[in-house]
């Protein structure tokens, strides 16, 4: 994200909306595991974030960046148990970028989490989807669920599919499926947008 500056003394604009940046390369030694496993959540819900270590590194901490607080670790906004951070009561102020960081300075891939105070959210994968794999998106509703589950699914602002089940599946994902997705219910409204990233399939040479 960025912000503008002008004048003397300096006057600053508000920060821009965050945009995802994925850099391909070696996978980091730790992954941020989110439960429930989705990037959008309702206010007042609970949330658990854990650092799943694949190396011998120790002392992983969950950290986040938000507009209001900048960078803070879990001890300032959640309850810490080992490498797990628990949030018992979400509010929109928890919207931000989350990641794991070790004592030695290693980082996991970041995850954008959105906390929504409306009636509809989009259930989408937390981590990038690998080319050739299926992608499932669902419209989720604040209780109670509507009797009519029909929903429109959008990619980059244009309707992609309309599904009576409230669930959309792309059987074989390709790089062209990467983009911003959201869903809309005719009575309950629409979800925020989430970025879906597609990771290239690994190729091996013999």
Automatic annotation (TrEMBL):
<dbReference type="GO" id="GO:0009897">
    <property type="term" value="C:external side of plasma membrane"/>
</dbReference>
<dbReference type="GO" id="GO:0006955">
    <property type="term" value="P:immune response"/>
</dbReference>
<dbReference type="InterPro" id="IPR050488">
    <property type="entry name" value="Ig_Fc_receptor"/>
</dbReference>
<dbReference type="GO" id="GO:0007166">
    <property type="term" value="P:cell surface receptor signaling pathway"/>
</dbReference>
<dbReference type="InterPro" id="IPR013783">
    <property type="entry name" value="Ig-like_fold"/>
</dbReference>
<dbReference type="Pfam" id="PF13895">
    <property type="entry name" value="Ig_2"/>
</dbReference>
<dbReference type="InterPro" id="IPR036179">
    <property type="entry name" value="Ig-like_dom_sf"/>
</dbReference>
<protein>
    <recommendedName>
        <fullName>Ig-like domain-containing protein</fullName>
    </recommendedName>
</protein>
<dbReference type="InterPro" id="IPR003599">
    <property type="entry name" value="Ig_sub"/>
</dbReference>
<keyword id="KW-1015">Disulfide bond</keyword>
<feature type="domain" description="Ig-like">
    <location>
        <begin position="110"/>
        <end position="183"/>
    </location>
</feature>
<dbReference type="GO" id="GO:0004888">
    <property type="term" value="F:transmembrane signaling receptor activity"/>
</dbReference>
<dbReference type="InterPro" id="IPR007110">
    <property type="entry name" value="Ig-like_dom"/>
</dbReference>
<keyword id="KW-0732">Signal</keyword>
